[in-house]
Structures are given as structure tokens and as C-alpha cells.
Amino acid sequence: MRNILNKFKVLFYNPIIVYLILIIGIGVVAIQSASPLFKINYAATHDNNAFKQLLFIGIGAVIAVFIIIIGIERIRALRWWIYGFWMIPLLGLFAYKKLHLPIPFVKDLNGAVSWYELPGGLGTIQPSEFMKIGLVLVVADIIQRHNERYPHIRRTFKTDLNLLMKIMAAILPPSILIFIQPDSGVTMIILFFIAIMIFSSGIQWRYILTVGGIVIVLMATFILLVGVFPEFLTGTLGIDAYKLSRFFGWFDPFGTMDKDGMQLAKGLLAIGSGNLIGNGFQSAHVYFPEAHTDFIFAVIGMDFGLIGTLITITLCGLFDYEILNTATLNRGHYNSYVCIGIFGMLFFQQIQNIGMTIGLLPITGITLPFISYGGSSSLSYMILFGIVLASYIEGIKIKHNEVDYHERTLYLKTKAYIKDNVKFDD
């Protein structure tokens, strides 16, 4: 019991908990503030989104406490069990969509098969959100074991390629299943945080720069083709036209306001209407769809103005910084790669969600972590938050042990020096 209490005492020195509480508070207020806009599309649905958000946050907090108690090493030992457990529902969604098997509780929403209905009217659960947990644990273990086997001085092209192949073998099966649903948003999150983990693994820079350059060229080429030769993408490559419609709305939101650009144009108008201090709680000054989920940042801008958006961005930045600080605290250990992966998830979602809301990036349906409404997202990120806190505790232990070791070494060296070189007069 004393060891458990000592773990929680350590956390009092980490401001990340305060940052998270403030971020969750902003999210709950923003979700409730979006209620008038929610009721426009879902008039027959009882609006209890803020309560549900707190419910899932609370459940996630309980799991996070459990993770802190059992420690990160036990979570690491379960990594493949977690990975395999969430592969099962992903395979079920694939079987329903592609093999047309009657898988129970599957929810088909506008052709997207990404959720299972929960009994008792509790909502839905999205397996891909929890697969991210399994992937970050598995990939971190792959990198750590690889680095233990091949120290930096022994790294070659062959060893780096071997590492990449092992990582690809782990991430491709779930990534393909998630992309087929189709859920390109979560697929991009996975690819991004895996890339960040690979970047931090010690792989040689020339390979990173080569692959990164190729990815940038491919992305620029794709965007150019969407704008100039969309028929090539739809006719020759067989890409669905509706997937490209988001790009058309991104290129010219106000020119396509009656169709593809409606959501972005209305979101920009909503943010602009907020000015410095906003229009007030539940103002509903401008209507736009998905206000409580994808476009929650527009709600913050509309109702709480520039000040509200800057506070939100600042808190997200401070929260991310503390995760990186935890990774640094565990440098060279398994926990460090886990924290880097979690940072990659959060950072990408924050940049993508805020960027698409203000028109800097195309709309992808990615939510803002801890702020947008979403049971699966909130629950999964609270679990990841528990892993970060457990890693922080382990990092403090590592730092303490290193300090003790260096202090004892210095003490012994000093004692030996005095004995051999210093003479005291009788």
C-alpha cells in the first residue's frame, strides 16, 4: 500500500494532470455550448453529450489509475494480447463489409463500417481507437528490443531495414483493415505516430530524409492531380468521387458553399464571428454540421472568441510538452518510445483538427482529443494518459537510481583520493 501511495505522491510534481483537467473542462463546456447546433440535426435525440463525455472520461480515469498501480512493465507484457484482442472486432467489421457476413452489433453509417452498437443505449464503440494502444505498445517493444540487439555503433542498412520490416509486419494488418472501413483519418494517425517512433529509434538519417521526401512529393502530386486532373484519379485510379469532394471544398470553400465547401465555409464564418471574446455560451450564431465532434474548435472560436482558442491551443501545447518531457525522462528505455508514440498521436490530431477547421488542411473527420465528443476516443486517450503517468513514475525511478549511482561513485572516488593523496598532520 505504501508503494502505491508513493507512486501517486510522485505525480503531484507533474503539472500534466492540471493541464488535462483544464482541457477536459474546455471540452465539456464546448460540447454543451454546441447543443443548439446539435439539436438542429438531431431534434428527436436527447442531448446528453456532455454527460456521456464525462462518463467515458470517468471510466477512462479509473482504468488509468489501475494502469498506474500495476505499472508499465505489466502493460508491456500484455502488448500482444491487447493487439490481438482488438484485431478480432476489426476482422468482424471487415467480414461484415466485404464478406457480407451477419456480424452482430455492427453499425453501418453512410457506408462507413467502423463501429459496434453498445447495449442499453450507451452509444457505439470504435475498435480502431483502441487498436492505436496496442500498436504503440507493440512497436515500442520492437524498437527497444532491436536497439538492445543492435547498438548504435552496429547499425547498418541491413539492421535498419530489418527494423522497418518488423514494424511494417505489425502495423499493416490493422491499418489495412481500418482503411477499408473506410477510415482514412485513423489510418493517417497510425502512420504518423509510427513514423515519429521510427524517427526516434536511431535509424540513419539519410533513410528518414529519403522516405520523408518521397512522401512529401507524393502528397503534393496527389493534391495537384485533385485540382487539375480529378478525372485521372476517379477514372484511372478508381478513387471514389466523394473522397475528392473534400478537397474541392478545401480549395474554394466559399465558392462551393452550397455543396462541398459548406462545412468549412460555415466553420470559418463561425470562428470569425467570435472576434476577441466570442458571442457567448450556446450562441449558435452560425450553423454548421458536426459542431460537437469534428468542428468543436469552431464552437470554441464562435462562443469564446480568439481568447478561447488561444487558451485551448496553449493548454494542448503544454500537455504535449509534458509528454515529451516524460519521454526524455525515460530516454533509452521502452517507456520513452511509448510516450513518443502517444505524443505523435495527439500532436497529429491536434494539428489536423485545428488546421482543417481554419482551412489550412483538408477536412478528414479527425477529432480534437479530450475536447471533441466521442466515447471511444475519450476512453482510449484516458488509457494512454494512464500509460504516460505510469511512464513518468518509472522515469523518476530511473533518474533517482542514476543520481544515487553517480553520487555513490563520486563518494567512493573522493574517499579513495583522500586516502591516497591527502596526509593529515598528527
TrEMBL record:
<feature type="transmembrane region" description="Helical">
    <location>
        <begin position="186"/>
        <end position="203"/>
    </location>
</feature>
<feature type="transmembrane region" description="Helical">
    <location>
        <begin position="295"/>
        <end position="321"/>
    </location>
</feature>
<feature type="transmembrane region" description="Helical">
    <location>
        <begin position="54"/>
        <end position="73"/>
    </location>
</feature>
<dbReference type="GO" id="GO:0051301">
    <property type="term" value="P:cell division"/>
</dbReference>
<dbReference type="InterPro" id="IPR001182">
    <property type="entry name" value="FtsW/RodA"/>
</dbReference>
<feature type="transmembrane region" description="Helical">
    <location>
        <begin position="12"/>
        <end position="34"/>
    </location>
</feature>
<feature type="transmembrane region" description="Helical">
    <location>
        <begin position="125"/>
        <end position="143"/>
    </location>
</feature>
<keyword id="KW-0133">Cell shape</keyword>
<feature type="transmembrane region" description="Helical">
    <location>
        <begin position="333"/>
        <end position="351"/>
    </location>
</feature>
<dbReference type="Pfam" id="PF01098">
    <property type="entry name" value="FTSW_RODA_SPOVE"/>
</dbReference>
<dbReference type="InterPro" id="IPR018365">
    <property type="entry name" value="Cell_cycle_FtsW-rel_CS"/>
</dbReference>
<keyword id="KW-1133">Transmembrane helix</keyword>
<protein>
    <submittedName>
        <fullName>Cell division protein FtsW</fullName>
    </submittedName>
</protein>
<feature type="transmembrane region" description="Helical">
    <location>
        <begin position="163"/>
        <end position="180"/>
    </location>
</feature>
<keyword id="KW-0472">Membrane</keyword>
<feature type="transmembrane region" description="Helical">
    <location>
        <begin position="208"/>
        <end position="229"/>
    </location>
</feature>
<keyword id="KW-0131">Cell cycle</keyword>
<keyword id="KW-0812">Transmembrane</keyword>
<feature type="transmembrane region" description="Helical">
    <location>
        <begin position="80"/>
        <end position="96"/>
    </location>
</feature>
<feature type="transmembrane region" description="Helical">
    <location>
        <begin position="371"/>
        <end position="393"/>
    </location>
</feature>
<keyword id="KW-0132">Cell division</keyword>
